[in-house]
Each structure stands twice: as C-alpha cells, then as structure tokens.
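User: What would this chain look like folded?
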Amino acid sequence: MALKKIFFQSSLPRSGSTYMQCVLASNPNIYAGGTDGCLELLFGARGNYQTSPEFKAQDATLMKGAFKDFCRAGLEAYSSALIKDTDKEYVVLKSRGWGVYRDFLNEFYPDPKIICMIRDLRDVFCSYEKLYRKNQLAGDPIRNDAEARGTTVYKRMDEWAHPQNTIGRAIERLTEIIALGYANKILFVKYEDFCLRPETEMTRIYQYLGIPYYAHDFDNIPQTVKEEDTVFGMGDLHTIRPKLKMLPSDAKSVLGNDVCKWITGNAPQGGGFGWFYDYFKYQR
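Assistant: Here's the prediction, encoded as structure tokens.
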C-alpha cells in the first residue's frame, strides 16, 4: 500500500518515547520505529547544498526549488522503503531533532505533525541516574575520575544538564521551540498523562495527526522497537514493560531532596529548570 503521510516524534529522553512508538506501531496502518537517522541524511544534503560551488554557480531561485523537492522526495522515498511490502500507510519517524528543526522541515514538508513526549524532569534525571548505577560493569562516559567529572550525584546532574549532553540539549531545544513561537504547532504529551489516561491521550494524538482512531490494548504492548543501546553510551535504554502503567516517582530517594529542589528551580542557590515546570504546568 502506498505511503499516505509521514509524522514525526521529537521527545525528551526518558519520557516514554519508545512506549509511544510501540503503541503507535501496534496499529496495523502505522510504522513507528526506533531512533532514526533520516534527519542526519537531510542535514548532510543541506550542508552540501549550502557549500558546494556547483550550486552557488547556478540560478539561486532554481536551485532552492530543486533542493526543496530533492529533500521532500528523499524523505518520502526513505519512508516508503520502511513500509515496503506491507499494508501500512503512515510512518512516524523518531529523532530528538525534528522539533527544533521544524522550520527546516516545514520548507519541504509543509505543516509537519510533530509529537513531543515530556516528563517531570526530576524523573528524567532520576532515570538516567538509575541507568548509570545499573550499568557499572559496562562503565559510563559521564564519569571521569582523572578529571573528577561526574563523580557525585550533583556532578552527574550538572553533566547531564549541560547543553552539550543529552538532557540539557533536549531542554535547550524546548526553549528554542518556545522562543521561535511554534510550540503551539507541536503536540506535547505528558508521560504521566499517557500512563494514567492512555485512551484520552491517544485520542488526542489521532485527532492531531488527522487519521482514524485505533483501539489499542494498553495491557499488552508488544516490544516492536529494538535498538542496540550500547551505541548511545548506556544499556537498556529502550526496553518497555508490556503493560502501560504509572509507577510512583522515586526521584527524591534516588537523587536526594536537595538535587530535586535544584531541578525544579526551588534551591536557595538558584539554577534549575523552573521555567519548564511553570510552562508545562508541572507541580514544583
């Protein structure tokens, strides 16, 4: 069956993005896979388009139109190949960059529908800390004893929160999305709402995507997304439980009360991400 539409997921780390892909993939009309490199292919093409003298030597308007059509055709061909020899009509590509590069995507794929899973940042950081402690045999690039970097809970929070690291980069991208004024065109889904009221949230997602609703079985979610997690620096990043449910937060017991206060922006020394809690209406 021919490809009808491409959708995008661009979520915070440890916010249920793999769960979301697995739920979407249980719809026989949807392909939803793991973290995808399609955006990197488009970036590579953009870099050559911007710097190659062969493009600069020709009519700029003609080349711009040709490049935009090249990107769209490449995106559609890539997505069509993912559902080749299946009856699927829709593809959901997952990359943390789709959201912040929406304007680039919009140039050749107008009005892209982007889902962004978010979660209480205390639990995001807590999830990373638990993975760090769980994977001691494999080691972790966050810790460097020779440089005294990442050697305490406080230091690891600082490392992960840095814009050059995973959580910090994702949060910085959220601030840019809001600053550029297109946050209202992205569908933000709270992980907590997704776990507590999955039917309500999935109804909202289908309405946003503009495709027929599918009745999912949230007590039996197959693990359709499989990734080699060692390439991301930590193991067991994308394993899901078959039953969707909300587990109690253990952020305070794992990170400590002071670290949690810093994350929410309530620490006496300042810092943290108070704006996130206020903007997305999370309890501080």
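The CA atoms of residues 60 and 66 lie 10 Å apart. If you want, I can go into more detail on any region.
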